[in-house]
Amino acid sequence: MLSILLAFGCTEPPTPTLNSKERRLVDSLYKDSIQVLRPLLDSLCDLNFDGDVAFAVDSMMEIRLAEIRKQLARISQLKRQN
Description:
Number of strands: 0
Structural class: mainly alpha
Distance between the termini: 77 Å
Largest sheet: none
Number of helices: 2
Shape: flat
Helix content: over 70%
Oligomer: single chain
Number of domains: 1
Strand content: under 5%
């Protein structure tokens, strides 16, 4: 009996279904939340933009410089072999 209970307890719960009234309610709650949060999120994005771009550029530069070093080492090795 315990194994039967464990087998049913380990299954995924069914996905929730909403009727049209519930969907409209969820949609309106979402829209209201977005309108309230948008100014805050936009200001956070503005504050972090320069730092995020600088971080991304630094990351790309590190990758590209590593690739260049690898290519230069390969070329140097080929020249030594010839």
